[in-house]
Design goal:
Blueprint (H helix, E strand, L loop, with lengths): L2 E8 L4 E2 L4 E8 L2 E9 L5 E2 L10 E7 L1 H7 L9 E7 L5 E9 L2 E4 L4
Parallel strand pairs: 1-8
Antiparallel strand pairs: 1-2, 1-5, 3-4, 3-6, 6-7, 8-9
């Protein structure tokens, strides 16, 4: 089984993005199936939300960025950031960071 973690940084302030709701969904022919939901901690991280991990397959992380920006009284262009990725057999860990700003974002496979 594979562990999935994430880390969100606000590139405008250069600080961790604490308090963003993140949903993990598995994708299959029936559509997205909820797997887990968490809120980023003070360091902008969601660590071990699934200690037993997930099976190989297609997944997506849904970051509720619009709600988070509104809470800090800032405008933003993207109400959500959705990151699709594939978990392959034999991989022990996927770290999927998100760098976010009001009008842009970037993501990559971290370590």
């Amino acid at each position: 089984m594979t562990r999935i973690t994430t880390h969100v940084l606000d590139t405008t302030t250069g600080r961790p993005a604490a308090g963003i709701t993140v949903k993990l969904e598995q994708l299959n022919s029936a559509g997205p199936l909820p797997v887990a939901e968490a809120v980023t901690d003070a360091d902008g991280r969601v660590g071990d939300w699934l200690p037993k991990g997930v099976a190989a397959g297609h997944y997506r992380l849904v970051f509720h960025t619009g709600t988070w920006f509104r809470a800090s009284q800032r405008e933003s262009f993207y109400p959500e950031v959705v990151v699709h990725f594939t978990v392959r057999r034999g991989e022990p860990h996927y770290h999927v960071p998100l760098l976010v700003a009001p009008y842009g974002y970037s993501t990559y496979r971290g370590s």
